[in-house]
Write a structure and sequence with these properties.
By secondary structure, the chain is an alpha+beta fold. The protein contains nine helices and 14 strands.
Length: about 325
Amino acid sequence: MLTLLNLLKDGRFHSGQALGVALGISRSAVWKRLQLLEAELSLPIHKVRGRGYQLASPLSLLDNAQLAACTPGLDWPFLLSETLDSTNAEALRIMQAGRPAPFIVLAERQTAGRGRRGRKWVSPFAENLYYSLVLRVEGGMGQLEGLSLVVGLAVLKALRERGVAKAGLKWPNDILLGKQKLAGILLELAGDPADVCHVVIGIGINVNMLATGEVDQAWTSMRLQLGEMVDRNALAGDLTRHLNHYLGRHRVEGFLGLQEEWQDNHLWQGQSVSLVAGSYQVDGTVLGVDKQGALRLQVGNEERLFSGGELSLRLRHDS
């Protein structure tokens, strides 16, 4: 199917005869494959007599050669799949099968994409970036302090490099544009965090998605903001280069060396917020983050620290 999609990805009309010649099949076989594409991948295809077939919207398909060209000198192999349950789950399986880190798993779509706190990450075919980087971590928990926040800086840098200048960070794992979600981060550990372990850094970025009824919160995409389709290979390359840079700094400097930069890009700095975990809620004002990446809140007359993957930060209505 990817061969057929590569012929159609430009969003122009292609005759059934031309497609059949390129694929070495009959026009009726072309028609059957197009029906399969529509059914399996939910890709609308326009059919016009005398003109042929056209995708409703052009596609930016992932390509190993283009990804390698975007990351010269960086030996982090890209493992591409058409469909996965989730790139994080596949990355864990590959790591457990013995493949050495680092490596990156990418997919054109996910059938069970995951966000924080068990949320579904909507993952339509070839529209967004579904990306997981596997790293080997040695030296105990200190190497993991503030890691998700450092990853957020790399994502933010890649987005701004591609023109989304007003994107910013929300503690601990989101990238927003105003109050709309643009990207999210999910870290998962395997092994002994007190000794040697692996961390899977999962990143989802809304790239070319224009509409969906499946997201239960305010969202946007790069294409909605920029008014044009974004090259997902170039974006994945930018992201990989910036991850290499920021993770290298984190290994040497710890989160302390990046604390000020993170706070400078935190959209909710100084805002009145509610911190929620299940039925537990604390109201306060964001002071920043500490040298381990924990959230600093002014609660009444005292400063309190909060950390943990199950916490959710929300703006208060009176902020």
